[in-house]
Amino acid sequence: MPPKKRQKSRNRPPAKAAAVAKPPARSVRLSPNMKFTAGLIGLVLVIVGIIWWSNRDEPAAAAEQLVRANSHKLSAAADGKVTLVEFLDFECPSCAAAYPSVERIRTEYAGRITYVVRLFPLTGHKNAIPAASAAQAAANQGKFEAMYKKLFESQGSWGGKETDQAATFEQYATELGLDMTRYKTDVAAQATSSFITAEVTDAKTVKVTGTPTFFLNGKKLTTTPTYDNLKKAIDEALAS
């Protein structure tokens, strides 16, 4: 028989090494103490964030929205270094409470600061707009400051009433020696209404939400407007 042919060997690729099995991932279980600590840290971070947010510096408001050419300046400083602007409502009890402190500040810093009144009658006060109209009508006769004082010093007798206090304001105008025919015309005039509307628009633009709201050199004051707080802020501004 013929000899069998020898089969040629074929080159075969080496067998791949078997994949090494990875151990399953182990889940980490937090002990009750670790969970409590993590929760406590999270709570502290939230509290710190809230404190930072509430105490952050308010951005300066645009100067033209705080003091207009026709704004009521009750005090003026020649150097113009420090300007205190108050958005107020003549019927607001908090404004009346701040009034003595403001007047004390005006007296103490006469000639050193400029103090500007902006009208922001609140819709929740029945006679806020009539009082603002009375003050603006008095301003047309050069008696804004006198009416401003009159309204705050007598707020306890007319503020918070549901009845129209126009007659009361007319009495004040008479006591201040105003021309009553002109006063009554100006109270009802569209120009007076437009002025107050413009004041309110500026207030909302600079994010005034309540009264009294003070701005010192363009920055909103966030502390209670007591005499001490106002004095501290003003002294720092004068020293800067």
Describe the 3D structure.
The structure is a single chain. With 240 residues, the protein is of the alpha+beta class. The chain has ten helices and five strands, in the order H-H-E-E-H-E-H-H-H-H-H-H-E-E-H. The chain folds into two domains: 30-59; 63-239, Glutaredoxin. The chain has helices at residues 32-55, 63-66, 93-108, 128-139, 144-153, 155-158, 166-175, 180-188, 190-205, 227-239, and strands at 72-75, 83-88, 114-119, 213-216, 219-220. A five-stranded mixed beta sheet has the order 1-3-2-4-5, with helices on both faces. Helix 4 (128-139) runs antiparallel to helix 5 (144-153), helix 4 runs parallel beside helix 7 (166-175) and helix 4 crosses helix 8 (180-188). Mean pLDDT is 85; it is low at 7-11 and 43-57.
Helix count? 10
* Alpha-beta classification: alpha+beta
**CATH-level-4 superfamily name of the largest domain:** Glutaredoxin
What is the first-to-last residue Cα distance?
120 Å
Shape: globular
Q: What's the quick description here?
A:
The protein has 240 residues and is an alpha+beta fold. Helices cover 49% and strands 9% of the residues. It has helices at residues 32-55, 63-66, 93-108, 128-139, 144-153, 155-158, 166-175, 180-188, 190-205, 227-239; strands at residues 72-75, 83-88, 114-119, 213-216, 219-220.
Q: What secondary-structure arrangement, pairings included, does this model have?
A:
Blueprint: H1 32-55, H2 63-66, E1 72-75, E2 83-88, H3 93-108, E3 114-119, H4 128-139, H5 144-153, H6 155-158, H7 166-175, H8 180-188, H9 190-205, E4 213-216, E5 219-220, H10 227-239
Parallel strand pairs: 2-3
Antiparallel strand pairs: 1-3, 2-4, 4-5
Helix pairs in contact: 4-5, 4-7, 4-8, 4-9
